[in-house]
Structures are given as C-alpha cells and as structure tokens.
Amino acid sequence: MNNEFSDWDSVEATPEYSLIPKGDYKMLLEKVSQETVKSPDNMGKPRYNCQITITDEKYTGRKIFRDFMPHSDKSRSAVKALALATGTPLQGNMIQVLIAAMNKDFIGNVGVSKGNDGYPDQNTIWSFKSLPVAQYQPPQPAYAPAPPVQPQQPIRTGKTASSQDGKPIFLATDGNWYLDQ
Questions:
Q1: Would you place residue 69 in the very low, low, confident or very high pLDDT band (cuts 50, 70, 90)?
Q2: How confident is the model over 79-105, as pLDDT tens digits?
Q3: Using only C-alpha atoms, what is the Rg of the chain?
Q4: What letter does residue 6 receive in the DSSP assignment?
Q5: 3-class secondary-structure state, position 148
Q6: Are 79 and 90 in contact (CB under 8 A)?
Q7: How far is CA 3 from CA 8, 11, 12, in A?
Q8: Could you say which of 45, 46, 68, 85 has the lowest number of CB atoms within 10 Å?
Q9: pLDDT tens column, 10-24
Q10: Domain residues of the chain, as ranges?
C-alpha cells in the first residue's frame, strides 16, 4: 500500500504575505530554539532563532524571525536591549536571558532588510523598547478585596445628649452627632 500523501483538497496554500510597514509595534517573543551555524565564517558556533509575534491590532499574529549569536557584539547588544525592554534580569548566558524574556510585551521597531542572492526583502526588528507606562498592565490579583461596608444608618454608641431644642441626639461610630428619631 502506498502511504504517500494525496489528499490535496484538505491543504490550504501558503498565504502570500506583504511586508509589514516600517514602524513601532507591540510584540512578544514566543519561541527560542538553538542551532549550530553551518556557514563557513562561524561554522560550529551556536545561533538562537527567535520567533517574535506582533500583538498590535492590524498585524496581530504576524511573525518576525530574528537570530542572535552569542559570539556577536551586535547580537549581545540587541539581547540586552530586549531584556531591558521586557524587564528581564540579565542573568545567565544569552539563551537563558532569551528564554526568560519569552511572553513579555515590548515595542519592536520593525524595518526592512534588502534581500540578496535571489531572496526577497524581509522584515526585521531594528530595536527593542519598553511599553509606555500607560500601556503597562500590572498582574491582576486573583481576587479583589471587598470594599468596606458603610452603614446605611448611623450606629448608636450609647452616648446621648440633648440638642438646643431639647431633642435627644447621639454620637455615631463615624464621630458625628445625629438627631435621635
């Protein structure tokens, strides 16, 4: 029996994507994977492939891929900027910092790198910035404490006095005197 795939009706064609316009976009680092460089210049050295997802309204879900190499000053500077933008501590090696920065919002400045050797132009992230303070959403507690209950009517404390017209008044727990009715 032939096990080769042949149900082409169940497969959607790969969508054609246009470049994302240059600018700042809210995004987060979703995946980090490690591979070994195969090009002659850096053969055998590690490279960390990162999948970054845009979370801004118009381009939500679009992916931009960025590689970082621990032996590159440019990559080290970019990873430090990403860590600072996400509030990630700069502890451990590069992959540990990248993994700690996963799923944290930041602003990425998207640009376009010119393609070469027959490859098309592609989006890249030129810089990393923190979210503006107004967009920062601190973690919400699992529950909110109930607001203090205010009594509908003043509560008597037992002290009573007379008003100028002789009607009884009492001191309530809020420290005010009320007419006893």
A1: very high
A2: 999 999 999 999 999 999 999 999 999
A3: 31
A4: -
A5: coil
A6: no
A7: 14, 17, 20
A8: 45
A9: 888 877 778 999 999
A10: 19-129, 154-181
